[in-house]
């Protein structure tokens, strides 16, 4: 597995969201791995960041350390698992998904993908209307490309329809490995800015704010250009973005982050102060934890809706914007802006 050098994030305060449910393995953020021997806890230091390919659908995840070097957690030793009464849900999924079951077999390559699926299933209940939305929107019996497919939460249902062919593209091999095999589903590990695909797509779907995870305007232009390149004449591009990630002093989403951060740090949070230092994006520090320790901490970089300037970008890419609808969603982070653009015949 190759080394992966990440650019350092700006030295600015981060939002923190606490996920207090127990998970079946204990790890801590950045460069420290806690190895538990009997009643003692021994920190083990790692000097390199492994190429975890964690950027993709739903997150732009990086193990975060406030000072260099950024280091990845390479393996997990003990305990296995935490208290059974709190991990029954995860053990059930664990054993049905083919993950290692013996102590000492769990490794970093499985961690992020498993956390990703768990977060979608247990923390995003109000967002599950997106599946019904995409199944209604995307016609069957067509060639569909899903950019940022992750573990196939959107791509798999689209591929189950007779005659459909779905290419699920994601940067993370670990997430793609969790997609159940299906005759019409074809996982492809690739960067959405450099797609190894030809012009065969009738529908291109960019779900769940994946487009907002691209850091720069250049990256977004390249991703749109690649999407247009693989689209047949008359094909349609659908991009899902969150309207709450915007340049406003307050939003439901920011209030939730503020409350979560205050719960973790025991200090008040001024959410507008935190966004003002980054006029085009916000940084969210997500923390998965048990009662005993932090399991995993990573950051997400979200570009504000206004900073995307998506309508102008679609026109520059040679597409005709057909409509913008309110899509689906609910709860504190509704996704209510879906852009639909067509490639001219």
UniProtKB/TrEMBL annotation:
Protein name per UniProt: Methyltransferase type 11 domain-containing protein
MF terms in GO: S-adenosylmethionine-dependent methyltransferase activity
InterPro entries the UniProt entry points to: Methyltransf_11, SAM-dependent_MTases_sf
Pfam family, any one: Methyltransf_11
Organism: Streptomyces violaceoruber
Domain annotation Methyltransferase type: ranges: 147-237
